[in-house]
User: Fold these one by one.
Assistant:
Number 1:
Amino acid sequence: MDGLDEIYNDLIMEHSMNSYNKKKLDKADYCELGHNPNCGDEISLEVKLNGNIIEDMAFTGHGCAISQASTSIMIDTLKGKTVEEAKEIVKTFIEMIKRETKNEEDLEKLEDAIAFRNISNMPARVKCALLAWHTIEDMLNK
Amino acid sequence: MNIKDDFAILKNRNITYLDSGATTQKPRQVINAINNFYENTNANPHRGAYTLSMDATEVYENTRKKIAKFINAKSSDEIIFSKNASESLNLIAYSYGLDNLNKDDEVVLSIMEHHSNLVPWQFVTKKTGSKLNYMYINDEFEISDEEIESKITEKTKIVGITHVSNVLGTINNIQKIIKYAHKKGAIVVVDGSQSIPHMKIDVQNLDADFFVFSGHKMLSPLGIGVLYGKKEILNKMNPFLMGGDMIEYVYEQETTFATLPNKFEAGTQNVEGVVGLGAAIDYIEKIGYEKIEEIENEVVSYAREELSKLEYIDLYITPNKENHSSVISFNIKGVHPHDTASILDTEGVCVRSGNHCAQPLLRSIGIDSTCRASFYLYNTKEDVDKLISGIEKAYNMFKKYIKL
């Protein structure tokens, strides 16, 4: 067992190869580009707000399975949340990847995104998993 | 003779190392030479009047002579030590390019240049108001004679060309390019980083004006590179970096510079790297380029054959075997190269994935990254088998999800 199946599991594969979140929004309020220059991964995140609530989100771009799935799953997790809740979830996700938190209660808030908890076993891929989360972090902080 | 035994890391880490295009592993002989230098000869060359410093100077300067002989330079004054090929290329761009390019002059590069032989020329052409043009590849991943002759013109002053592409493995016809450029009055800068590890270089026979390479891609330590330049050109150039050991007289407001080669070697140099490079050259010469080519030919031909059998991959190599060195770029259709590389890694197979510091080339082919397997003298057919079974594993993991 080399840990590969934990990472390339059905959930991640489906999201990466065939994501319903990969599209353009009709009317987006905010758009932010994320880029990993070393690997060429590029995503464009779109967000539509309703007051303080993230009403809709989508992405376009290209990259590896991990960066694409991470983006798509992040969108599922953050949709319907308030901006404050989203900030908290993003922070928890980044801490989980960096192995700075193991608080199960906190991690539950991540919903499906918890699937990436073992990515720290593949250090070369950490930045792929984080791309979308850093991008939304920049956007939310603006 | 089992070459693998000289490379302890291959056994210690139990890996199939297929990333020699990025950096090669180092044989015991090179590591020992560096050890020996620090235990018996270390001092600052050109600085002390005591025996130890003179010994260090002798080791340093003897290696310069060894390199001159190795690439058949006319004089060891034409061998300048640098940090790597990138620094050598920057030296040429700054010291030659900035001073010799005028408005409306042209610099011609191939689209397959590494960023290190591309970005400095963007800077220099913008600064001088000159133009940057490219020779593109055909559908065989080669630069045709017609392309050479249509891009290099009377306006061309500098041609930059990689001898072997670090992405495609294509061996460029630099004999033709140099001859043609000279006819048009241009000088030629050859990036030999991917060629000199694999083939005998004779700079006089090539008639290259500049030829640069990195030591670490030819069994030497990291951080040592070489710039070869024709003496008459180097003599006319201004220094690039300034400081200790590159001067003659320094006054409060004026300085006169040292003669070649010191003029271009400011500050204390990477003597350990030079010693390692000397030992690497000894190692290559002991085995011989003929033998190296024979080993690589067998392994790379086998890799080409085996990879060609996999109908689910794209290969980015020329069909003309004689124009192909030992780099193979590929992609599993519908699978991102980083995923392929990660899965290969779990099998101990080290390949590079990404844009290989050649974004304009990949963009011109219409892709954004590839997996790259690059081979060297320590690789075997078993390594190819490992690569193939790793690729099969990756494909099988992704197969049911792939949407083309």
Number 2:
Amino acid sequence: MSPNRNAPSVYAQLVDLLLIQLSNYRWAWRGTVVTGVVAPVMMLLAIGLPAKQYGTGGLAYVLVGSVVMSLMFQNQNQVAHNFAFMKAMGTLDYFATLPIHRAIVVVGTVSAFFLLSLPALGVTLLLGALFLGVPLAVDPVALLVVPLCALPLAGVGALIGLLAPGPQDVGPIALVTTMAMLFVGPVILPPDTLPDWLMAVSHVSPTNYAASAIQQVLVGPVTGRLWVDVGVLAALTAVVLWVVGRKVPWHAR
Amino acid sequence: MAAVAYDVKNLVKTYPRQRAPAIDGVTFQIHEGEIFGLLGDNGAGKTTLVRQMVNLLRPDSGTVELFGRDVRDDPRHVAMLVGYMPQKSAALNRLTVGEAIYFTAHLRGLSRQAARGERDALVELWRLGDIVDKSSEQLSGGQRRLMQLAVAMAGDPPVLVLDEPTNDLDPVNRKHVWDVLRDRNTRRGTTVILITHDAVEAEKAIQRVGIVQRGRFTALGTPGELKSRVALQVHVDLSFTPGSPPRLPAGITPWKSAPDSWSLRVDPDAVPALMAALDFADITDIRLSSATLEDLYLHYVS
């Protein structure tokens, strides 16, 4: 009986899965242009012009909301579509018949879509800052914060893709979830424009913490609240990705 | 005696909201180096059976051992030893042909350099050179099937489990598939387990066959053993001068006829009488063939 060889290392598995999932740019780039740049910039213009009455502080919310929207479309929604596709087409079965860890598939997928989302994120941020006249003050902590904002969103997307009855159901579910999470809390609009009940509900929405963290590291100033946001986002990432790992159909479970 | 590759005992699987089991108490062994064929109607339970053998589906009861180890105890054991080709062909739609083979070989434990060599060898073996850089969603059904076969073989696993490997293929490529599988089995001792509806071609490769019906084996053995258990008829194909059909003994009638040819099915003990009755002056060609695997399959499923 052969072969007498070892299974690939965790590092090798992760690199391969990342490269395999990065190949999704072949279909995802159109969506990246439309939903990752055009839609957030249009929203930014539609809400940003009337919001000029709130001054730079109010416009910063619109800018950050557009960045969060871009992150959601590129991470949550694209990952949702990808997991639904992998489940329906047998790609998850293909991975399950190879000597790789289930968690590597999850981490490789969300990491690849995060990397694919960065150009759209950058373009949205720069166009938004230009159109709205919001000065950027990028803190190096952004290198930690931005991925941490994207990961729980990607995890929610993976759950949508895995739990949706079929690939055709993913689009509407993901869109409704995106809209709900964008408008629940001070993501696009300043907190003083929102009713108290919406502010209370916002404490359970990851976008609330993502928007707060992104505003601090991209527009400033960084305050002690950042570490609360980072803690919540890190905890959410761990919980959501663990649940995703449990829900991935894998081997004879 | 070759070692036992697969040892399947009392396997039972019933899907949720189904009354009848998809697999109903199946027990059998497959030896190392064997080419084992699973034949059966659509929905007979063949795919359910092989998905349990590659650890993608959990049985309700029973065990599947691969080289002496339960497949559920260590999923990596199966993953390292078995190359599985599923029936669905869209799994790798986002990758090019070359990428799919390379990544599979590397993830099965080959070094990056060896995986590149394996990719090139399999591209040549399966004649995929013209489409190596194409995304698999751009391929025809037959090309995608050949890519799947290359992916299943990537890394040279000692066991191949192939779910309908010749579907969507033209006759030339079907023959190529059987040739390659036979060669792999002969040269490297690869154990091949395959589901097929291509009984005529499969007969040239399959060493042992299981005929599945309603989740059970209705027949299991070598084609020769199974043929000897049932009285299958001999095929006789006659060609003659148009307008001058031969006389046939009483009780024998063609089941297929054309102006210049007949096809007959005759009991083996009636063959001498048929030969004696024919006037070979009018016969331009005559061919006798024994029962095929397809006849056997049709006999058991009818």
